[in-house]
Amino acid sequence: MNGYGGSILRVNLTEGKVSKETTPSDVARDFIGGRGFGIYFLLKEVPKGADPLGPENKLIISSGPISGMLIPGGGKCDWTTKSPLTGGYASASMGGHFTAEMRYAGLDSIILEGISPKPVYLLIDNDKIEVRDAADLWGRNTFEVEKHFKEKLGEEFQVAVIGPGGENLVPYACINHDYGRQAGRGGVGAVMGVKKVKAIVVHGTKSVPVADMTAYKQAGMALYKACKDAEGLKDWTRYGTTIVVSWCDEVGALPTRNFSAGSFEDGKNLYGPVMREKIVITDKGCFGCPCPCGKYSRNKKYNNYVEGPEYETIGLMGSNLGIADIEAVAHANLLCDDLGIDTISTGNVIAWAMECYEKGLLTKKETDGLDLKFGNAEAAFELIGKIARREGLGAMLAEGVKRAAEKVGKGSEKFAIHVKGMEQSGYATHNATAMLLAYMTCDVGAHHNRSWAITYDLQVGREKVVPEKVARVIWLQNFRPMFDVLGGCRLQWVELGIDRDLYVPALEAITGIHRTWEDLDKVGERIWNLTRMFWIRENEGFGRAWDMPSPRFYEEAPTSGATKGQITKLEDVNRLLDMYYEQRGWDANGLPTAEKIDALGLRTVVG
Amino acid sequence: MPATLRLTASLKKMLNLQDEYPAEVGESVRAALIRVGIKPELVAMVSVNGTMETKDYVIKDEDVVRLLAVIGGG
Fold it and tell me: Once rounded to an integer, what is the mean pLDDT over residues A204-213?
């Protein structure tokens, strides 16, 4: 089948056996790859009510048709599972070089099933696929294990590895790769951990068949030329995602002290040029990327090297903790990566704990003696380790901000910043109604990458609650995650502004199937509805209440910064949802109607 | 050579504007944006001759001022 490795690899960890099956052509046609494959297999194969940390849950790793191809940004793969953090759908995108090697080994998806009785790693060397003992690697940090495999097997092997966070089933544990890339959100690392899989190591040398080699080369070159000619290429590459730190600070979107404000009085110390000057030594990109956003840093203050920090980590580990030292942020980044926990969730939950401490809801005894004031970087470092190891206060924080707030109570639930149990990522949304709606309705919880609508807020009027904003959020939710379906990166489109139509001939040349963006947007809409159906299936009573944001955004206006005194009224939050459900073709409780499911041709998938 | 404002594709598409505009020496980038009809808050990054500057930067002769929008996020 053109455009595909051709095989789905199943790994039965309970029995230590592996098997391959042919990638179903109808699934490839209808769901294309990446997160499309992920939700298809999740709905079909994980039984209703499965414990996310039980043997019935599966971890589904999928590439897409542009993964590993000479297409800018073809270095992404999707990790789908039932989330131990939210109890709903989890899908984490990981860059680097793993997905290319997967494809060259002939694999479109790897599905981890069951639970191994002992620590193992999965070795994939073309058709040599083995579940091997990893007893000597269990308990070790991610960088050490990746280095171990690189030295033992060779640099050409790509490694995805969990750290102590995943081993200890922290529900926001991530999977680390390429010394600094992650499948970060939703606890995919905990699912790998409970299955006792320390690492997946992959290398392949096979070709991926393409339908029209000449057209493929032409389309690929056209895409690379568009990136090379883009006006902003040099600036974007110099600073990567850190270009938005100053902008977010300016417009009141930079999460500050547990999202109590959107501007940080010491934010200048975290801006892109400061970081570039102080710690960055080189750029670091994923497979085939012409505009690497990754920045590799030498942190003299803490005597180490780290990839990053990128914007999200600067926001959550910097301003959101009241820390105005880019080297301290970089060090927190390194600790999280090495221990295998998500920097976004970790920064969010530590900020909540700091606010609890400052409000007297957590005593010094309850913080294990830590003076957990905002701005105390050393305390944050200590807590990162405690979370990954589930020690002391870390054991409670390791459960995520929603569960921790339910345990502490005393009103702390109101400043637990999450949606559906997933900690909100790096944008304060007191007065950015489209972005707020994007967080509320994101299909994994409060994550920004599906629909990044905050510029649209500024373009049309940030406080406005109008149908056009809702339509924009929906369009982005259908369209942007299509890059996670195709197995590529969206940043070439979103940051360099290259024409998305350039991907159409590339995809056709690779797969032999002509699809316009209208067709692809429809696939995106089908997938979005399937992920919603998964939430409904797995959570009794699921509906509108699950889409509500933290009260902080409709009850507490910031007292400083660009959004001082600004807030979204609760009635507007509900109006946003009313319009969203109507435009989606869902009922007033946010459930897709039977007519909608049938119109999208999804009946056979959801039953 | 006069100074120039150059818009990246994202910003140009968002606002349906031209590729570039002449800039006036002595005016701030912020003032230049307003003059051209761009809300300053829509510009995420100002790059002057390849170096990131603030919107308060005062434009000099021969400066090439690149304006980046943010439509993506991380």
Answer: 98
The rounded distance, in Å, linking the Cα atoms of A470 and A572 is 12
Q: Which residue of A has its CA nearest to B41?
A: A251
Neighbours of A7 (CB within 10 A): 18
pLDDT by residue (tens digit) across A193-203?
Answer: 999 999 999 99
Q: Is B37 on the interface with A (CB under 8 A)?
A: no
The rounded percent of chain A whose pLDDT value lies above 70 is 100
As a three-state string, the secondary structure of A494-534 is HCCCCCHHHHHHHHHHHHCCCCCHHHHHHHHHHHHHHHHHH
Q: Measure the CA–CA gap between A406 and B27, rounded to whole angstroms.
A: 54
B14/A231 CB distance under 8 A: no
| Cβ burial, residue A181 (10 Å; 0-12/13-18/19+) | buried
Which pLDDT score, from 0 to 100, does residue A557 have?
A: 96
A458 to chain B, minimum CA–CA distance in Å?
7
Distances (CA, A) of A94 to A3, A195, A439, A516: 20, 20, 20, 26
For A46-67, the pLDDT digits (tens) are 999 999 999 999 999 999 999 9
Task: Determine, for residues A495 and B10 on separate chains, whether the beta-carbon distance falls below 8 Å.
Answer: yes
Q: How close is the nearest chain A Cα to the Cα of B25, in Å?
A: 22
A157, β-bridge pairs: none
Beta bridge partners of A418: A423
Contact A37, A111 (CB under 8 A): no
Global confidence as pTM: 0.97
Inter-chain contacts counted by CB atoms under 8 A, chains A and B: 98
Cis before B22 (ω within 30):
no
Residues from chain B contacting residue A566 (CB–CB below 8 Å): none
- Could you report the per-residue pLDDT of A147-156, keeping only the tens digit for each? 999 999 999 9
Phi and psi at residue A102, to the nearest 5°: -55, -50
In this structure, the strands spanning A280-284 and A175-177 are unpaired
Q: Judge contact between A471 and A460, C-beta under 8 A.
A: no
CB contact under 8 A, B71 and A494: yes
In this model, does residue B73 exceed pLDDT 70?
no
What band does B13 get if pLDDT is binned at 50, 70 and 90? Answer: confident
Residue A395 one-letter amino acid = A
SS3 of A282, please?
Answer: strand
Whole-number Å distance between alpha carbons of A193 and B62: 58
Residue of A561, A545, A588, A590 whose CA lies nearest to A265: A561
The 8-class DSSP code of residue A168 comes to: T
Instruction: Measure the CA–CA gap between A323 and A319, rounded to whole angstroms.
Output: 6
A118 contacts A178 by C-beta, under 8 angstroms: no
B14 → closest Cβ in A243, A244, A459: A459
Q: What is the largest CA-CA distance in chain B?
A: 37
Cβ B74–A246 below 8 Å, yes or no? no
Instruction: Give the pLDDT band of residue B2 (cuts 50, 70, 90).
Output: confident
Over residues A519-527, mean pLDDT: 97
pLDDT of B1 reads: 67
* The token pair that represents A304 in the structure block: 């180490």
What torsion do the CA atoms of A338, A341, A347, A349 make, to the nearest 10 degrees? Answer: -140
pLDDT tens readout for residues A139-183:
999 999 999 999 999 999 999 999 999 999 999 999 999 999 999
Cross-chain Cβ contact B66/A243 below 8 Å: no
- A308-338 per-residue burial string, b: 16 or more CB within 10 A, e: under 16: bbbbbbbbbbbbbbbbbbbbbbbbbbbbbbb
